[in-house]
Design a protein that fits this description.
The chain is of the alpha/beta class. Among the domains are: about 50 residues, no CATH class; about 130 residues, Rossmann fold (3-Layer(aba) Sandwich), CATH 3.40.50.1400. It is built from eleven helices and ten strands. It has a four-stranded parallel β-sheet, sandwiched between helices. A four-stranded parallel β-sheet has the order 8-7-9-10, with helices on both faces. A two-stranded antiparallel ribbon has the order 1-2. Strand 1 and strand 2 form a beta hairpin. Helix 3 packs across helix 11, helix 4 crosses helix 5 and helix 6 runs antiparallel to helix 11. The longest helix has 25 residues. The two termini are about 25 Å apart.
Length: about 350
């Protein structure tokens, strides 16, 4: 006789409800799903692939909150007529040609495999781990639907953004909630909050700095923590992102034992005519060089995986601005990616959010 779980499902995996009629449709065993969610990636670097991706991204009103009647003509007729070419060139410079995909996709897959291995060791087959992208593929909707079909009656949705912003965390969660709207039997959904002050996340950042510094002949004059920018008015409207970034850098500095002037906070990736959070990284690194701080290291704590904003923008454009202003040595410290210490942090957060469900 099969063992009956508290939720009424036969275990392990009979595929039938306890005491159900013989002709009852098969029902998969109850599981808990975990979805790691990241920003997204184009499917390829050609014009039309880039245009589809950028159109989805820049049409999101969490990202660009102008009225649609005003923004869409600008986007469709001006921005998307040119930007896919420049963005495609940037992606081609970092593209994983072996797998024909962006580094973000490669790294997110590696992170997912590492987290899945750890959770399987702790909880067996009761936990299903997958990843989704807010823009591009695999879409959040497709992953939520796949998990529901696999018997995930509960899902922990984990946006891989340590610092909360409406333009990143909130829109990722929006996509998950919209996916539930299309399901007749909706799983329960938990969203993971920002983890900008998570001790193991700070520890992973600190170890990455220590590892990078240990390999240098000369200690950098400054560590620049470069975060993705946001319009300044978002802060005035209540977005906590700026405060989260500042706190992450302060905690990192304290963990490293660095002086206050050794860690610099800056913001990159401006878009449009508005004033964005300052200082701008590209200008700040030039200022540092001109002030005589000609040896710097740069890291991007807001990015859980290396992507075009780090591999191309920081390691090429921002590096060039620093050297052109008189800088002598520029060290880019990679994102945490699938490093074991990063996986430790992600699993610690997930175990906390899974409490009561496993």
């Amino acid at each position: 006789m099969p063992k009956i779980a508290a939720d009424g499902l036969d275990l392990p995996g009979e595929g039938r409800l306890a005491h159900a009629a013989p002709d009852h449709p098969p029902v998969p065993p109850a599981r808990v799903g975990v979805i790691l969610a990241n920003l997204g990636t184009p499917d390829a670097t050609d014009y039309w692939s880039m245009r589809r991706y950028l159109n989805e991204f820049l049409s999101d009103q969490r990202v660009i909150d102008y009225p649609r009647w005003k923004w869409q003509p600008i986007l469709q007729l001006m921005v998307l007529s040119k930007r896919p070419f420049s963005s495609g060139a940037a992606y081609r410079g970092i593209w994983n040609t072996e797998r024909n995909e962006s580094p973000l996709l490669t790294i997110t897959r590696e992170q997912t495999a590492a987290v899945a291995e750890r959770l399987a060791a702790a909880h067996g087959g009761r936990v299903v781990v997958d990843f989704a992208m807010r823009y591009g593929n695999p879409s959040t909707r497709s992953v939520v639907e796949r998990m529901a079909a696999a018997g995930c009656e509960r899902i922990v949705f984990f946006p891989l953004y340590p610092q909360y912003a409406a333009a990143t965390t909130a829109t990722a969660c929006d996509a998950a909630f919209r996916a539930l709207m299309g399901l007749r039997w909706q799983p329960s959904l938990r969203t993971v909050p920002a983890y900008h002050a998570e001790p193991l996340y700070i520890e992973a950042l600190a170890r990455s700095v220590e590892r990078a510094y240990a390999g240098l002949e000369r200690r950098p004059d400054a560590l620049v923590t470069s975060y993705h920018g946001l319009p300044e008015r978002y802060l005035a409207e209540g977005d906590p992102y700026h405060c989260h970034c500042r706190k992450t850098s302060r905690l990192l500095r304290e963990r490293l034992g660095f002086g206050e002037d050794e860690v610099v906070v800056a913001f990159q990736s401006r878009f449009g005519p508005e004033e964005w959070l300052k200082p701008y990284t590209v200008e700040e690194v030039a200022r540092l060089a001109q002030a005589g701080r000609r040896h710097i290291a740069v890291m991007a704590p807001a990015f859980s995986a290396d992507c075009v904003e780090t591999l191309e923008e920081i390691n090429e454009e921002i590096r060039e601005a620093f050297l052109h202003a008189g800088g002598e040595s520029f060290t880019y410290i990679p994102c945490l990616n699938a490093e074991p210490a990063h996986v430790d942090a992600l699993v610690a957060v997930l175990e906390r959010e899974l409490a009561g469900w496993i």
